[in-house]
Input
Amino acid sequence: MFEDLGVFLRLGDATDVVTKEMYDFEDKGGRRIALRPEHTAGICRSFAQHRPTTPWKVWYSGSNFRYEKAQAGRFRQFDQVGIEVLGSTDALLDVEVISLGWQFFQSLGLTNVVLMINSLGDPEDRAAYIEALREYFESHSEKLSEESRATLQRNPLRVLDSKRVQDKTIIDAAPTISQFLSEDAQAHFTKVKAGLDALGVTYSVNEGLVRGLDYYQRTVFEYVSTSLDSAQTAVGGGGRYDGLVENLGGPATPGVGFALGIDRTLLACDSEEVFQGASPQIDAFIVDVVDGMTALRLADELRAAGFTVDRAYDGRSMKSQMKVADRSGARIAIIIGPDEAEAGNCTVRNLMTSEQSLVLQTEVVTHLASIVGERNPRRNTQ
Output
């Protein structure tokens, strides 16, 4: 969650994440540290520090923090899962990474996610493209929004990210990166597209896609949900960052990866109603009118055996607890009164049919399974 501030400062002073959005402060030891705004830089710092064998494949999960205006799909604290692979420049590795994210969204049942890809070329290609953009946007600066004119002074690439209506016509007519790609970068991108075609992964090339961090080069990509209504529709994305490890003090090491936004992905799942199944039915509700200890023990035993179980608390009366049992939707009520507690048994009542039987407490697991079916044990209680 915390990193040395220098790790993120090396991402570049033209990056909004560094200049505007990072929480940084001095800790009690006098160290300048930052709340993690993204994971990739920390992964590359770890690689530079420990030098694992390549190719190094890792995954991560955790919170990030960015100081920005909170809105639908964009929070100051947000969770991501992602993968990184360091040690290979192979274009088909890019394909594997992209397709893994694509398959993840498919496995959730999301059908309104589209994949956009682009190539930012090599550093020299990117530098030439940035200069061409600068000249173009400066020649049309009077038509740009005030925000985009300020962005232009820091990094012309970021102007392409503008969603303001005022900027759209100018951006649509801007030079495109494909005009500046070297032969090697173009061949790399062609191979990426061929690999995605071979796997049947549907994509579109978006030459305005530049991503929000300046360490990317060559392949960049985003997964976008068309079912989200907010301005923030990207549910994940990533790309290749072949120079980042070197910038962090490690050996020259290529890398590629992605991060998927948990918050936006869940919003997309809600929008497409992929999790609209009913809540799991409670298998049994335990009614204990003695002292609650039997209910405590039986609930733990039944949950360990894989059953969903609930119970009442606060020493309520039999009538009160049975009302709660009925409202819970449970199929079975397991009743322990003074007589049952003394004899070591319980009354098992089918709340659907009102049939009931007296069962030894030691046989409740087996008896419940005979009514509602076997469950997968959650832990071994032997």
Observations:
- The mean pLDDT is 87.
- The first strand starts at residue 2 and ends at 4.
- The chain is about 40% helix and 20% strand.
